[in-house]
Automatic annotation (TrEMBL):
This is Uncharacterized protein.
């Protein structure tokens, strides 16, 4: 295994690591907004649901509107709103870092003979699935 192959593996694993942290952090913020909007106490234990019915109501696109509505209607104090907005900005920055990793992976994959000779034929438009194979190819 040469250093380029090792670096390909490292950057791929780093991408997934960044993605997991960003998603987990965003879900925590999303949960705070959801609990405030639905009047659920933070120490209240919720039943586990097989299917999350609230997920469509609290997408990233809807979240900021709900957050601002909570602030305007008195469901959240301005201090809490400000901290959540700071967390939101961190998530946006995290997404940018994640994108940088993705760009490097795309460069690596497009230069890789395994991709050019085989994987490109399987799924030419979607790098996402190909990334998951990189750590196992070498």
């Amino acid at each position: 295994m040469n250093s380029i192959e090792i670096l390909g593996r490292i950057i791929t694993n780093a991408y997934y690591d960044f993605q997991q942290v960003r998603i987990a952090s965003m879900n925590r913020v999303r949960d705070i907004i959801r609990k405030r909007a639905e009047g659920i106490e933070f120490n209240e234990v919720e039943e586990k649901k097989e299917k999350k019915t609230f997920s469509k109501k609290y997408t990233d696109k809807e979240l900021l509107a709900k957050l601002n509505k909570l602030l305007n209607e008195g469901g959240m104090c301005s201090e809490e709103h400000n901290y959540i907005m700071k967390c939101w900005e961190i998530m946006k920055d995290s997404k940018k870092l994640e994108k940088k990793h993705k760009d490097i992976m795309e460069d690596y994959i497009s230069d890789n003979p395994i991709y050019n000779e085989f994987l490109r034929l399987l799924n030419p438009l979607n790098y996402r699935y190909i990334y998951s194979y990189i750590p196992f190819l070498f």
